[in-house]
Write a structure and sequence with these properties.
Elements (H helix, E strand, L loop, with lengths): L5 E6 L2 H15 L3 E7 L15 H8 L4 H8 L2 E3 L1 E5 L7 E5 L12 H10 L11 H8 L1 E2 L16 E3 L2 H14 L3 E4 L2 E6 L6 E6 L3 E4 L2 E4 L6 H6 L4 E3 L8 E7 L9 E6 L2 E7 L4 E7 L6 H12 L8 E4 L3 E3 L3 E2 L2 E3 L5 E2 L7 H15 L8 H27 L6 H8 L4 H13 L12 H10 L16 H20 L2 E2 H10 L2
Parallel strand pairs: 1-2, 1-12, 2-8, 4-15, 12-21
Antiparallel strand pairs: 3-7, 4-5, 6-23, 9-10, 10-11, 13-19, 14-17, 14-18, 15-16, 16-17, 19-22, 20-21
Helix pairs in contact: 1-6, 1-9, 5-14, 9-10
């Protein structure tokens, strides 16, 4: 990277490209020029419409007003993900954001709940989660608790139209100085000695030079894959779904404040409530369901004609062997793909941007150590999310061949050890900065029917009467709080009215 002003070139638009452009332009300062290349003729996947709460931090860092964002992107609020039929048909549980219950001293809540369950004193796990109680009631609230200071604020995320979000960020980024180039990228020019990318050649005999490049070209991975030849780790042995078909349908108020993920014979269906439409998709494994049958199934599940023709997608679950190679960082689908089961796609773009900002090389400096650290953190993050997704598939009691085969598939050692620790002692250990919290793991493990053999002995020091009173009080507090919240649709409308 040469001395002087650093030229950052982002290849590709969509959510990944414009999130990167907006953030890099805002935080790197005047010594860094940012441009983005995209073609209106090249479509984006645009199905990542459900998020997790960390996106609120990203938007806030960019100075985005939440109500403006919601209006511009057709957004609704999200308190968690409802899983329907994942253990067996007819069973439903919610992976809700935020804490589940409250620890008592050194005793984790799961130990108290498990002991109370053995005494037939406990309700469902969600009865002791503020988000689950609110989601079940279809209510939403932003800000401090209304009935008791001890109750934490309701953590939430968003559903939104990914194409509208990209357009929203584009307007902000261009206003902030990002230069957009329209056109297809035809080839990549590399330095013959160092191997670094020097320029992108566009249709119309245009040449865009740069010092640092961000590959946001989606599954095509034009820079990181085609030009630099970085390999791909295939994780289909554990996550074999390799197809999706997506189609929008009419909005269906009242809008639930959660995403729906419903298991089917060869995968699962998503349903995402937006103000102007419903996002629908079917994820499946082509070894068990063909494309035409999958499309017909999705149309049938929608319950009527979709509002746009279904779009078919193909993918390989996995990740690049390196996310940063030479002077190219891959973000979004070019860096890897983990199916949207836990709404991590947008989050992975966000963490890639944050990681790059923390490790961005100084002009003229040696970036080898920075690259190694970036790739180490990426490996850890992707592997832990991968394990969490595998758990949903492996812990099932369904009878269809696809699901039987998921139970029979081996597990990564990291996941097998985590399950063993949970089964033996109801302990979850969260390592370093991994995404999913202890509460998230507990909800999915319990929801999928993985029940520990025992609990911590400290839970036995509380009498049955005290334990019962504690749980009843906790549930009563949450229900009283939620009763003061507005309906989800009313909360959206109130934000839309604030102009």
């Amino acid at each position: 990277m040469a001395q002087g002003r650093t030229r950052i070139v982002i290849a590709g638009g969509g959510s990944a490209g414009w999130m990167a452009a907006a953030a890099l332009r805002r935080f790197l300062g005047p010594d860094h020029a940012v441009c983005l290349i995209e073609s209106e003729a090249v479509g984006t996947v645009g199905v990542g419409e459900a998020t997790i709460p960390q996106l609120r931090l990203f938007n806030a860092a960019l100075g985005i007003d939440e109500d403006e964002f919601m209006r511009a992107c057709g957004g609704s609020f999200k308190l968690g993900i409802q899983f329907d039929g994942w253990r067996k048909p007819g069973e439903v549980y919610l992976h809700a954001f935020g804490n589940v219950g409250r620890d008592v001293g050194l005793t984790g809540f799961q130990h108290l709940w498990l002991r109370a369950r053995s005494l037939e004193l406990a309700g469902e796990l969600g009865d002791y989660c503020l988000n689950a109680v609110a989601a079940d009631a279809g209510r939403m609230h932003r800000g401090a608790a209304l009935t008791a200071k001890a109750i934490p604020p309701l953590p939430y995320a968003f559903h939104f139209d990914a194409a509208l979000y990209a357009a929203f960020l584009r307007r902000r980024a261009e206003t902030g100085g990002v230069v957009r180039h329209e056109g297809r990228i035809l080839s990549v020019e590399r330095d013959g000695e160092s191997g670094e990318v020097r320029a992108l050649l566009l249709e119309g005999d245009r040449r865009i030079e740069g010092d640092f490049f961000v590959d946001c070209t989606g599954f095509r991975a034009l820079l990181i894959g085609d030009a630099l030849g970085v390999g791909y780790r295939d994780w289909r042995r554990w996550l074999p779904c390799d197809r999706a078909v997506a189609a929008p349908s009419a909005a269906m108020p009242p809008l639930p404040p959660y995403t729906r993920a419903t298991a089917h014979e060869a995968g699962w269906q998503w349903r995402i409530p937006l103000q102007h439409r419903t996002g629908n998709g079917l994820v499946y494994c082509s070894d068990y369901l063909d494309d035409d049958a999958a499309e017909a199934m999705l149309v049938d599940l929608i319950g009527g004609s979709p509002s746009a023709p279904p779009r078919r997608l193909r993918f390989v679950t996995g990740m690049r062997e390196r996310g940063w190679c030479h002077n190219v960082v891959a973000m979004g689908l070019s860096s890897g793909f983990l199916e949207p089961l836990e709404s991590t796609s947008i989050h992975l773009i966000q963490t890639a941007i944050s990681r790059l900002l923390q490790l961005f090389p100084r002009a003229g400096g040696d970036s080898a150590a920075l690259r190694r650290e970036y790739n180490r953190q990426l490996d850890f993050e992707m592997a832990r999310i991968r394990d969490f997704l595998i758990l949903h598939y492996w812990a099932n009691e369904r009878s269809e061949p696809f699901w039987v085969d998921r139970r029979a598939a081996g597990l990564p050692d990291s996941l097998a050890e985590r399950i063993a620790l949970w089964r033996d002692s109801a302990v979850i250990v969260r390592e370093h900065e991994e995404l999913f919290t202890e509460a998230g793991w507990i909800q999915v493990l319990i929801g999928q029917g993985v029940i520990p053999h025992s609990w911590h002995p400290l839970a036995d020091t509380i009498s049955a009467e005290e334990l019962s009173e504690y749980l009843v009080t906790l549930n009563t507090l949450y229900r009283r709080e939620v009763a003061r919240y507005a309906d989800h649709d009313a909360t959206i409308a109130a934000g839309s009215a604030m102009r």
